[in-house]
Design brief:
single chain, 27 helices, about 55% helix
Length: about 600
């Protein structure tokens, strides 16, 4: 082992630990790898920064923009709106159609984007059919993941493997070289989910009171359990609060209380603005801890004088049903797949002041959070319940950082649907015919989305998953260093010496199993970059068809079904589906083994002959 090989292996080990421990963002780790390679002299600066101009990176950026254009125009959502016409109320048929539709979309657009397009429709279908979202959201995610394995542009891992083949002077895989085995895997997974997987999914049946209705207010009561934190208080005539606005009352900032509704002279004023003036005898529906307001003036703490005169009422006045009426709506929202607000709090982004909406609760890891929401850092996958005027809801829906889960509240550029579909058809045609290189074709499609008005330029920039872009750009030089220092050949010799001397036919199985294990804790692009050079060197030494083995490596890199952290798609559905970490293990373990077995059989049949 040379010093160069030792340095590369040490960098790989450090990166693996940082990825697995989640101490830093994956793109920060990747850029750290890039910088370390330059500082140690393992790559030149030109080689280190070559990832930014790599065709795979440019192609992924184009896929993000095209996907966003299809979503913003509603060009694909009409498919989901017609699902019920095909499936009716059958859970089995719904799972089949959901997985097949997600698979079809993610074969040509980003799989996170495909999931985001379909997720609001899935939630709406769940409400209409009385089938729990927990029965449909994981099938949606798994269908999108498997659909990405059906074409060479379906996932970043596929594109990165193609980049490795091109760098070694081998013919890259064509757009449909993945399709046969990809469709076999998707079909097998649909069969597994309908026969076995659906019985392993958690089931949270809807209450009898919810039948034949799909209003959000029932979901407020049942899913987020808001009633547990609601109470009614009356403003007494001698209260210091009389004549003050809600903002001036300091009820929210000082006591973490939200006024959700005001009954004044028998009329409701749901979602009052912060400038609403409180009057004597106003009846307030308040969300928060009742104990924050002392019902007896003598028990009030020093400094709480301004909160005296709020008299808690029992059994009368405001009702939770009044949270949504007329122009006031209660809807669920999420951070968009590529939101820049991950890690920020509602207070930091001045959410209420900016949008005029109240966050009632946040759903995280299968449980509602209803306290100290203003200072809770948001995570990708959180679902949050917001209340406010419909025009403010629409304003939130226009923001690229947010995704509304109620299709009725989404604002789409439907007049641009034909343009978006035409661009998608043009891109697919050019990819199939090979008229232009893949990177040029995807860049052309992205530019056309902006020029035709399907997207604004700001939306296009926001749509690009910069974390993925810099992850790929930072890890690609590590693949070069593996080849340049001989580390890839060293590891290939190690695999051959350990396994090949005894059972050469087990080498593809060992490589794919290692890939399958790594991708449960590493991002798929990182797994593909690390394993593709090793697999390529092993294939060349053992006279195994390199293109077929690397196709298997690419597909195994995206087989992330066991944990929600394995892929962003799994995290995206965690909140709306109300899942826990253990749900993915229970449902995904057998599927992961099945998919890896199907890939191995394909590779063994066509690479080892």
């Amino acid at each position: 082992m040379t010093i160069g090989i030792a340095f590369v292996l040490a960098i790989i080990l450090a990166a693996l630990l940082l990825f697995a421990m989640d101490l830093l963002r994956v793109d920060v780790v990747a850029l750290g790898v890039l910088l370390t390679l330059v500082l140690t002299g393992l790559t030149t600066p030109e080689e280190a920064f070559s990832g930014l101009s790599n065709t795979a990176v440019i192609t992924v950026g184009g896929v993000f923009v095209i996907s966003e254009g299809l979503m913003r125009t509603g060009a694909v959502s009409y498919i989901s709106r017609n699902m019920l016409k095909v499936t009716g109320n059958s859970e089995v048929r719904l799972i089949v159609i959901v997985m097949a539709t997600a698979g079809l979309l993610s074969a040509f657009i980003n799989n996170v984007g495909a999931t985001a397009i379909l997720l609001p429709a899935i939630i709406d279908i769940s409400r209409r059919t009385e089938i729990s979202p927990s029965k449909l959201c994981i099938p949606l995610a798994f269908g999108a993941l498997l659909g990405g394995l059906c074409t060479s542009i379906g996932t970043p891992a596929n594109l990165l493997v193609n980049s490795v083949l091109s760098d070694r002077g081998l013919a890259p895989l064509g757009i449909f070289d993945f399709t046969a085995v990809g469709l076999v895997n998707l079909t097998a997974a649909i069969g597994y989910m309908t026969l076995i997987g659906r019985h392993l999914l958690p089931d949270r049946p809807l209450d009898e009171r919810l039948k034949n209705t799909h209003s959000v207010r029932e979901k407020v009561r049942e899913d987020y359990r808001l009633r547990e934190r609601l109470f009614t208080a009356r403003v007494s005539p001698d209260s210091p609060l009389v004549g003050k606005t809600i903002a001036e009352s300091q009820l929210g900032k000082a006591l973490d209380l939200n006024i959700l509704d005001i009954v004044r002279r028998g009329r409701n004023k749901p979602a009052p603005s912060r400038d609403e003036v409180l009057l004597a005898d106003d009846l307030l529906l308040i969300e928060g801890k009742e104990g924050k307001i002392s019902p007896v003036p003598d028990q009030a703490r020093a400094g709480d004088r301004q909160f005296r005169g709020l008299e808690i009422e029992r059994g009368i006045g405001c009702e939770i049903e009044n949270l949504q009426s007329g122009r006031i709506r209660v809807v669920e929202a999420m951070l968009a797949p590529h939101s820049s607000l991950v890690g920020k709090t509602l207070r930091e982004m001045r959410f209420r002041e900016r949008f005029g909406l109240t966050v009632l609760a946040i759903w995280r890891e299968g449980q509602p959070r209803r306290t100290a929401l203003a200072d809770l850092p948001l995570r990708f996958g959180d679902a949050f319940l917001v209340q406010g005027p419909r025009e403010k809801i629409h304003l939130l829906g226009k923001e690229p950082d947010f995704l509304l889960l109620d299709p009725a509240e989404q604002i789409l550029r439907t007049e641009r649907i034909k343009w978006a579909l035409g661009i998608l058809l043009l891109v697919v045609t050019m990819l199939v015919t090979g008229l232009l290189p893949v990177g040029v074709t995807m860049l052309l499609g992205a530019i056309l989305m902006v020029l035709t008005g399907c997207l604004t330029i700001d939306e296009a920039y926001t749509a690009i998953g910069w974390k993925v872009i810099f992850l790929m750009a930072g890890m690609l030089p590590l693949g070069l260093a593996l080849e340049k220092t001989g580390a890839a050949g060293y590891l290939a010799d190690l695999i051959i010496g350990t396994i090949g001397a005894r059972e050469p036919r087990f080498i593809p199985a060992a490589i794919l199993l290692l890939v399958g294990l790594l991708t449960q804790i590493l991002p798929a692009p990182a797994t593909a970059v690390l394993m593709a050079p090793i697999a390529l060197n092993t294939a060349l030494q053992m006279r195994i068809d390199a293109r077929t083995l690397l196709l298997g490596v690419a597909m195994a890199s995206s087989a992330s079904f066991i944990t929600p952290i394995g892929h962003k798609v799994n995290v995206l559905v965690m909140g709306p589906g109300g899942y826990k970490f253990s749900d993915y293990i229970r449902v995904g373990l057998l599927l992961n083994l099945l998919v890896l077995l199907m890939i191995l059989l394909w590779v063994s049949a066509f690479a080892c002959t």
